[in-house]
């Protein structure tokens, strides 16, 4: 592999940016395509979009001959704001589905190892964690479930700014309507706010915390596999 291309690939992987290395097996020529800057006029656009979604490498036929696509995507992860009953079920379900899970909740009575076992817990205010200790990105899903605007609102806005592939929040339609107004006041754009899944989870009639957790993780998977070609970060407003 060309040294410059290898350097670019390593930089992208360190930054959790998805890329595809396109190789001509006949002459060995290569190019690197970043998901965030994929052009609509790229001759392999549709195939590249599909590969970014599936994360599967493979040989394809093109009008110019065969090409091998080597796909590099960051491990998808879920950040949960709120160490509540639903989260106790959501952590194991998400782990089974292959997601790395981090739970953030400043309330130490909730965020305890006794309640969550080996799931990563951060007992701090979200604004003290994001982005200083954990930078959100298009391969992160953010789920807010505390029902407390003082805890939920900052990470929700941060997730929209970062282009997270999924942003969901627990609460009724009335609760969400008030949340929408707060996000607007904080500077979030209407098109970004429209991406927030609320009420959260697929509509399967879920009732128990475990059933709600399954509905949420299913919706996260749907968002990951059916997402647009890329979700570029929104211009971020400064939080006071």
Structural class: alpha/beta
CATH architecture of the largest domain: 3-Layer(aba) Sandwich
Q: How helical, in percent, are the residues?
A: 25-40%
The parts where pLDDT drops under 50 for at least 5 residues are 234-240
The gyration radius over C-alpha positions equals 19 Å
Any idea what the shape is? elongated
Kindly identify the CATH topology of the largest domain. Rossmann fold
Give structural notes:
By secondary structure, the chain is an alpha/beta fold. The protein folds into two domains: 3-72, no CATH class; 77-225, Rossmann fold (3-Layer(aba) Sandwich). 38% of the residues lie in helices and 19% in strands. It has helices at 3-14, 45-54, 85-96, 113-116, 126-129, 149-162, 173-185, 190-193, 209-225; strands spanning 19-23, 30-34, 58-62, 65-72, 77-81, 100-104, 120-122, 140-144, 166-169. The chain has a five-stranded parallel β-sheet, with helices on both faces. It has a four-stranded antiparallel β-sheet with strand order 2-1-4-3, with helices on both faces. Mean pLDDT is 91; it is low at 234-240.
